[in-house]
C-alpha cells in the first residue's frame, strides 16, 4: 500500500494552537485513494526543521508528501506554486532566531516548483464548496523553508515522489483574537486536505486552468 507523509507545524507567533497540526493530525492512519496517511509535526525553528523533515522522509519513505502550514490573514486554502531559496524572517522563530536574507541551501537553485497538481487540487477543493486558490508565494518563514527543503531533497535524491506545500487560514478560535481576520472551520480544512491527497494520488497531469495573479 502507498504511503502519504503529511507534515504540519507546532504553534508559533504567540498562538496556542497551529491549525495545520490540528487538521493534519486528524488524518493519521486514514486510508485515502489506496494510501495510508502518516503524519509528523515539525518545529518552527529554522536551524532544525529541515533535518526533522529529512528524518521523516528517510523513515517513512513516502510515495507523496504534502506539507501544511498556517497562513494567518489568508481567507482560503492556498496551494503553493513555488519555494524559494531564502530565509528572511519577519518575526523570530520558536528558538528566538530571526535569519535575514540567508540562503536555505548554499549554492542551491533559486527556486523549485511544486510537484503537486496544484490547479487540479484547487479545482477539486472549490467543487466541494471550500474556497481555494493557487498561491505564488509561500513566504520566507519556516513554511517556505520546508517547501524548498522538501523539493531540494527530492531533486538531489532523484526521488520521483510528488511533494509540495499547502497553506491554510486561521481557525475561528484564533481569528477571534485577531479582529477582522478571516478563518475556516477545522472540518472544512480537513476535508480540503483529504481532497488534496486524493487528487495528488489520482491525477497524472495537472489541469490547464487560470491560477495566475497580477500582484
Report on this model:
The protein is α/β, with parallel strands linked by helices and 215 residues long. It has one domain: Aminopeptidase. It has helices at residues 19-24, 46-60, 118-127, 142-157, 172-175, 186-202; strands spanning 2-9, 31-32, 35-42, 64-70, 77-80, 82-84, 111-113, 132-135, 162-168. The strands form two sheets. The chain has a seven-stranded mixed beta sheet with strand order 2-3-1-4-9-5-8, sandwiched between helices. Helix 2 (46-60) crosses helix 4 and helix 3 (118-127) crosses helix 6. The longest helix has 17 residues, at 186-202. The mean pLDDT is 98.
Relevant terms:
single chain, 215 residues, alpha/beta, Aminopeptidase, seven-stranded mixed β-sheet, two-stranded antiparallel ribbon, 6 helices, 9 strands, 32% helix, 21% strand, globular
User: Distance N terminus to C terminus?
Assistant: 42 Å
Number of E strands:
9
Secondary-structure-based class equals alpha/beta
Could you say which overall geometry the principal axes of the C-alpha atoms support? globular
Low-pLDDT stretches: none
What share of residues is helical? Answer: 25-40%
User: What is the class in the CATH system?
Assistant: Alpha Beta
Sheet having the most strands: 7 strands, mixed
CATH architecture: 3-Layer(aba) Sandwich
| Arithmetic mean of pLDDT | 98
Q: What is the CATH homologous superfamily assignment?
A: Peptidase C15, pyroglutamyl peptidase I-like
CATH topology: Aminopeptidase
**Helical element count?**
6
